[in-house]
Write a structure and sequence with these properties.
This protein is α/β, with parallel strands linked by helices and 154 residues long. The protein has helices spanning 44-54, 109-118; strands spanning 36-38, 58-63, 70-75, 82-87, 102-105, 127-128, 133-138, 144-149. It is built from two helices and eight strands; from the N terminus they run E-H-E-E-E-E-H-E-E-E.
């Protein structure tokens, strides 16, 4: 896996302060890129520890841009879509633990399960649902996730 970028903790005042990223996905006309999924939690610090230390997500951003507002953005390994844990933003206000069935597609579900188990994640045994394989886990608030393996997908 390539080296992860450092965690961003300051909001740039000007776009010229942001270094060019040649690996960034280009947003083509007509495209709608899903980049961020809000995950409702009761305790941002506890959830940040779970997602970074146990689930292995990279912490991209941890900022407080205004009084009472905190935004933590984390990205699963290899993903172009991140999650956000936030407080103080009414637009993202949802009951904690209500997000269901976010999918993390993996190449080797048993290796991924073992990695998560080794990090202390309580994850279900693998299920074969008609040739697509799943293993389920929850964050500390009860939001649920699925590891998904489709053998034909490269």
């Amino acid at each position: 896996m390539s080296e992860q970028p450092p965690t961003q903790t300051e909001i740039p005042q000007d776009a010229s302060e942001i270094p060019a990223d040649p690996t960034a996905v280009v947003v083509e006309p007509g495209a709608y890129l899903l980049e961020l999924v809000p995950v409702p939690v009761t305790d941002v610090d506890r959830a940040k520890r779970f997602y970074s230390e146990q689930a292995g997500f990279h912490v991209d951003v941890d900022v407080s841009p205004a009084d009472g507002v905190r935004i933590v953005q984390l990205t699963p390994p290899g993903s172009h879509c991140s999650i956000t844990l936030a407080t103080g933003l009414p637009q993202l206000d949802m009951p904690a633990g209500t997000l269901r069935g976010l999918h993390l597609v993996v190449k080797d579900i048993e290796a991924s399960r073992e990695e998560l188990i080794g990090r202390g994640v309580d994850i279900s045994p693998t299920e074969d649902l008609g040739g697509v394989f799943y293993a389920w886990f929850s964050d500390p608030d009860g939001n649920t996730w699925a590891l998904q393996h489709m053998p034909w997908r490269r």
